[in-house]
Amino acid sequence: MSNIRAAVLALLCFSFPAAAESPRVIGSLGQQIDLSSTEAYLRYLGSPVFWKFQPVLGVSGTANGSGWAGVGAATTWRLHDAGVFLRTSTMVGVQRRGSGPNLGGPIQFRSALDLGVQRPSGVEYGVGADHRSNAGLYKPNPGLNSVYLFASIPLE
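Request: output the structure for the sequence above.
Response:
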């Protein structure tokens, strides 16, 4: 699986350049796959600090009482002036189980892929998917996948 991720990332790096990004807040509403649990997810992307990587802070909560909070990095690739973009992020955080599934332990890594459109006003919207896993730190390591719709607003 990591070879596939590396190949996709390499392809994206050569497909279209990452753009200079401004800080923004992203709100998402989605579904945890196979769990029938609605999830609300809020992220903050800061100004780029290295190359085109932005620090990202995230927090989510679900209808089943589970929650997650974490920190990581994100980068965005934009398709020239078409307004279409692809954003990836990787975060490490802490999971609260609630009545949700046993993910093996509190430390969970969250990787996301967002595909969206940016309006001339800077507002973005689109669809995304993410995967959470403890990366083998604990047994079991079942992982958890979510899909969501998102909207974001620039802070500058």
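Confidence is low (pLDDT under 50) at residues 10-18.
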